[in-house]
Amino acid sequence: MRSEAISLPEVLDHDLGQYFAELRKFESTSELEESEIYRKIKPVVDKIFTSIIYEEFSEAADAANWSLLDTSGFPANDKSNLSARVVAWNLERGAQLDGIIYAFKNNAFLQDRDIFLLSELDYGMARSGNRFVAREIAKELGLNYAFAPIYIALQKGSGLEAEIEGENTNSIHGIALMSRYHFKRLYSVALPNGKDKMSGKEKRLGHLRALIADIGHPAGDIRAVSVHLDAHCSREHRRLQMKLILDFIDRLPDMPTIIGGDWNTTTFNSQNSTRAILGYWRRVFMGPFNVAKNHFPHPDKYFERPLFRMLVDRGFEYEPFNQLGVGTLHYDVKSIEKNKNLADWVPAWCFPFIYWAANSVGGKVSGRLDWFAGRGVSLSPNSEPKTIQNLTDESGKPLSDHDPITVDIIPDKPVNS
After folding, report:
1. How far apart are CA 220 and CA 397, in angstroms?
2. Closest Cα partner for 304 from 208, 373, 207, 224?
3. What is the DSSP letter of 60?
4. 361-408 per-position pLDDT tens digit
5. Helix, strand, coil tally for the chain in percent (to 5)
6. Alpha-carbon distance 179 to 182, whole Å?
7. Is residue 181 within 8 Å of residue 61, measured between CB atoms?
8. Distance between the two ends of the chain, CA-based, in angstroms?
9. 3-16 confidence digits (pLDDT tens)
10. Contact 371, 316 (CB under 8 A)
């Protein structure tokens, strides 16, 4: 599915909040969609989910034409950087937005990036200060941005988020793509949910999406794909979601392509708590140390191998573009926040066993959930992919539960469409 409506932020303003209490009473999406109240709000919901919010704040872009029709790309004299410097980062709602912006401006590995593939960005959620996270980042860094709404949240969130003071305003969560260069075309690809988002404690309308932009970079046009695959689903479902993205890309004109983001390669089937618990015990029997060392940081080698093999079979490489074996998400048994979030879908009796397994490997476990894959691009000479760890604010609080990843690439055969 392609979102045709390129819009300004005003399209996300709505008055749906008055219906949220009634909507939360439904226990499944099918029950919701058959209701009279949903039929009443559906035109507004559809308008939000079929829009891509787009604005230009970069001086390198042709700001006179934001409609993306017949654009001229980048200025002909802008040839200052013939590598595309890419970052992918799950921002965990953007709750630590000021620290995130500071890191983008000042961290040696994050500053002066050309292309930003960002996931988990709020607009009007109490947990992130009711700020429009994507727009504030783009404006502060002087970037063009595209934002695709994926969920309308019917409550404040899960775990500790539910206890945040204040109320949501716009109640929108989404995915973003940013660049200092011009977006020539934008596409949004809907991905099927791996779990009914109206079933459970955190109720939401919508579904995940991939956001795609053809960018007029000085090195040649590059197709950038911001991806966030489902967490609460099976490994096979994640592979299906990636397949749908690749199928969509292959229907477009061929172009050097970089895909990046949070692929949620946890190695688990997390469709429900029962499957997650069974998977947990399987890993206990495999040996906690073995799994922590050889599987969580290397999901491509066994548990999630079909997803990565599919990418390779479709002409994409991933090994050159990632710091293999380095985790991007870290679990610490002492983390009150992570245990509170986990308690929303794992029974209490499991926690002594979870603590035992984690403590047997030092109390901390890291997995690689965030990845790049490229086709028609190569690693820039004298560069290497990096995972940037230990990013915190002044108080020592992590900026996100995920670490950002970076890579510098060049198109194999530069083209300009």
Report:
1. 39
2. 373
3. T
4. 777 888 999 999 999 999 999 999 999 999 999 999 999 999 999 999
5. 30, 25, 40
6. 7
7. yes
8. 22
9. 457 889 999 999 99
10. no
